[in-house]
Amino acid sequence: MPSPTIGVLLTQLGTPDAPEPIAVRRFLREFLSDKRVVDLPRWFWLPLLHGVILPTRSRRSAALYQTIWRSDGRSPLLHYSLATTDGVRQRLGKDVEVHLAMRYGQPNIANALHTMTAAGIQRILIFPLFPQYSSAATASIFDAVYQTFASSRFLPTLRFAAPFFNAPSYISALAATIRTVADPDKPMDWLFSFHGLPTRFVTEGDPYQDQCIETTRLLVKELALPDTRWQMSFQSRFGREPWLKPNTDGMLKQLPGQGKQNLVVVCPGFSADCLETLEEIAHQGKENFLQAGGKQFIYAPCLNDTNVWLDALTGLIEQEISGWR
C-alpha cells in the first residue's frame, strides 16, 4: 500500500511537561511571551513577565497542576489529546496520517510538521481542537504553522479547518456527554462557562464572544432548557484590563444567594479537560459555590475521548479533506 499523502495535525494550546515549577515556568514563558496572548509593548511586558510573573506564578501554578496530574505521568490535557488522536487515526484509516501538536510545550507544531513532510505528506489539514475561534489561541496556531515553513524551499498544501462552534455533530456530542452526568429534565440550574478574553480583543474584531453565545444557544436548544434555568459566563481572567463578563468565579459565589442552589456547570469551549476545567471549576469553583450556600454542584466533563466525540470529530475532518481523498 502506498504511503499516505494526506496528513491531519490536531492541535491544542499546550501543557507543562511536569507539575514542577521549572517545567511550568518553561511552559508559561513560551505561552505568555506570545504577542497573540499578551500584546502589550515588549519593553513593558517582558521585564514584568521575567522579573515578577514567572517567579511567582510558576510555583503557584505547579501546585495546582499537582492536584490534577495523572498517575501515568501525563497531564489530563495531554492524556485525552493523545487518546483523541489515536481514536481519529483508527477511524480515518491508513490513507491519512494523524499527528498531535501543542502550540506551547511538547509535542510541538514545528517537529510534527517536519515529521509529516519528511514522510512525504503533501497535503496537511491543521485542525485546532478549539470549537470557537479566538485570536489568542486559534490564530496563534496558524502563526506557528506559517513560521515553521517561513524558510522552507518546499511548502505542502495547507488547509486550516474552520471553527466548529455551531456544527450539529459537535453540539450533539456535547449534549450526549453532558447527559451522562446530568439530567436536563431535573430542576437544576445551568452555567455554561467559557475561557475569558480581554474585552478589547472583541471590540477590535475577534468573533470569539459571538461564537460562544451561538454555541450556548444551540446547546440550550439541544438540551431543551428553559430560559430561566441557564446562564453563561467567562473564566480564567488574567491581568488587570477588562475581560468578558460576567465572571464565572463571581457567579459561583452569587448564585446560591439568588436561590440557585443546585447547579450544573459545563465548559463547552474546552474539548478536553485541563487545569482550567478540573482545578478551576470542578474543584475550586465547586468549593466556592458550596461555601456560598449551594447544595448540589455537578461538573459535566469535557468531550475528552468519548466515542460520540471521536465519531463527530472524524466526521468534521472528513468534510475538510473530502476533496483530497
Structure characterization notes:
The protein is α/β, with parallel strands linked by helices and 325 residues long. It folds into two domains: 173 residues, Rossmann fold; 133 residues, Rossmann fold, CATH 3.40.50. Helix content is 46%, strand content 16%. It has eleven helices and eight strands. A four-stranded parallel beta sheet has the order 2-1-3-4, sandwiched between helices. Strands 6-5-7-8 form a four-stranded parallel beta sheet, with helices on both faces.
Question: What tags apply to this protein structure?
Answer:
325 residues, Rossmann fold, 4-stranded parallel beta sheet, globular, 16% strand
What is the gist of this entry?
This protein has eleven helices and eight strands.
Q: Overall pLDDT, averaged? A: 97
Can you tell me the CATH class of the largest domain? Alpha Beta
Low-confidence stretches: none
Radius of gyration: 20 Å
DSSP strand content: 15-25%
State the end-to-end CA separation. 15 Å
Q: How many domains, as an integer?
A: 2
Task: Provide the fold topology.
Elements: E1 6-14, H1 21-32, H2 42-68, H3 76-92, E2 96-104, H4 109-118, E3 123-128, H5 138-148, E4 157-160, H6 168-179, E5 189-195, H7 199-203, H8 208-223, E6 230-235, H9 248-254, E7 262-266, H10 275-291, E8 296-300, H11 307-321
Helix pairs in contact: 1-2, 3-11, 4-5, 6-8, 6-11, 9-10
